[in-house]
Design brief:
Elements (H helix, E strand, L loop, with lengths): L2 H14 L4 E6 L4 H11 L7 H5 L1 H5 L10 E8 L17 E2 L8 H19 L6 E4 L7 H7 L4 E2 L5 E2 L7 E8 L18 H5 L5 E3 L2 E2 L5 H7 L6 H4 L5 E3 L3 H4 L26 H4 L4 H7 L9 H16 L5 H7 L5 H15 L4 H10 L3 H22 L1
Parallel strand pairs: 3-10
Antiparallel strand pairs: 1-2, 2-7, 4-7, 5-6, 8-9
The chain binds iron/sulfur cluster (2 copies).
Length: about 375
């Protein structure tokens, strides 16, 4: 079979088994690989050390498969039929990123890539060498997605497909097969800057450049320690990820809807009530988020985010929950509860926090409470002057 016919059959099969987009690129060194190294060198990856571990492997696919000639990129749409965060803003409810409403996409993606690989093995001549990657290997998904024609790099740094928008997961098959290659899609962002203007933390420093350390998605999912004090109010009601720069993107306005069962919101994960989440014990957390991307944050990270959202809600009904969290078993939860109480009660939180400082033994929480007490004193000073 010629490479043209082989490529055509692979693409037809990919669409038949449920991928929404498929494109093929040659293996090569693209300008984005150099940009990625510079991006890492500037520290924009924050604590995501796994990104720094194998930059050369990430930059050159031949370090993974020396015979590699082609990358087949497959896109899976996860845009379920639910309103966007910016349309449904209720301060007493949290916002979970669209990609995390359902099951972990890795399994769905991997199963389909395996079916596709099996098909390729059966129809291809000669000895086939291939690797499957779903966000787990040192591969620049988006770079190969771009050069395979899946979409262009938006100014918000997401891959945008003209028909599907940016709600798209990408997985790859890397192979030694010579195939027919697609062309990269031209950038269609034009003069639009909506994503940059809407980002609450200014994380998109300039078009196409994201400082993860400022991004709410990084802060609520990847960052394991305390959320920097100066960024907490900017998190709003985001408790796991942030969709704002995608929600405002005009290319997502008419994005295709998927009925893939694995991506539909699990019960209670679309715009969930904050108070119900605060009750999760370690065991509840494991049970509720089994097989969900949210388990990545672990209970302490997730509850840290929920408490910040409560603090940002302006809703005094959360005060009893926050006071209870001051006694939580986890220091991370206690530390952020002190901040949230101050957010809702201002200098009125002074006595409660002082009492807790007396019984608190964890140095990190003690330090946090002490700095919040300073803020209370400043509040008091500015009211009395
Ligand atoms: Fe900004 Fe949110 Fe987009 Fe991150 S995900 S760049 S915080 S709008
Ligand atoms: Fe591009 Fe505008 Fe979408 Fe940003 S909001 S990615 S600038 S089209």
């Amino acid at each position: 079979m010629s490479s043209i016919n082989l490529s055509k059959s692979i693409k037809e099969k990919a669409l038949e088994i449920g991928f929404d987009s498929v494109g093929i690129s040659p293996v090569g060194s693209f300008p984005e690989s150099q940009f990625y190294k510079e991006w890492l060198a500037k520290g924009f990856a924050g604590e995501m050390k796994y990104m720094e571990r194998e930059p050369d492997k990430r930059a050159d696919i031949k370090n993974i498969l020396p015979e590699a000639k082609s990358v087949i990129s497959c896109g899976l749409n996860y845009n379920t039929d639910y309103p966007y965060s910016i349309k449904e803003y209720d301060r007493r409810r949290g916002w979970i990123s669209r990609y995390a409403w359902g099951d972990d996409y890795h399994n769905v993606m991997k199963d389909r890539l395996l079916i596709l690989l099996d098909f390729i093995m059966r129809i291809s001549p000669g000895e086939i060498r291939a690797h499957i990657y779903v966000d787990t290997g040192p591969v620049l998904d988006r770079v190969y997605g771009k050069y395979g024609g899946i979409g262009w790099f938006g100014k918000n740094t997401c891959i945008i497909n003209q028909k599907i928008g940016s709600w798209i997961f990408i997985g790859e098959i890397i192979t030694n097969l010579e195939l027919e290659y697609d062309s990269p899609v031209p950038d269609k962002c034009g003069t639009c800057t909506r994503c940059i203007d809407a980002c609450p933390t200014g994380a998109i420093l300039e078009p196409y450049v994201l400082d993860s350390r400022l991004c709410i998605s990084y802060l609520t999912i990847e960052l394991k320690g305390k959320i920097p004090l100066e960024l907490r109010d900017k998190l709003g009601n985001s408790i796991f990820g942030c969709d704002i720069c995608q929600d405002v993107c005009p290319w997502n306005r008419k994005a295709k809807i998927t009925d893939e069962p694995s991506f539909q919101p699990r019960d209670g994960l679309y715009n969930p009530e904050l108070s119900s989440l605060m009750k999760l014990s370690e065991e509840d957390f494991r049970r509720v988020f089994k097989g969900s991307p949210i388990k990545r944050a672990k209970r302490k990270g997730f509850l840290r985010n929920v408490i910040i959202a409560m603090g940002n809600s302006g809703s005094k009904e959360f005060i009893p929950h926050i006071k209870e969290a001051l006694d939580d078993k986890d220091p991370m939860v206690r530390a952020h509860a002190a901040w949230a109480l101050w957010r809702l009660e201002g200098e009125g939180s002074y006595k409660t926090l002082l009492d807790h400082l007396e019984i608190e033994s964890d140095p990190m929480v003690r330090e946090e409470i002490a700095s919040i007490l300073n803020l209370c004193e400043k509040d008091n000073h500015s009211t009395t002057n």
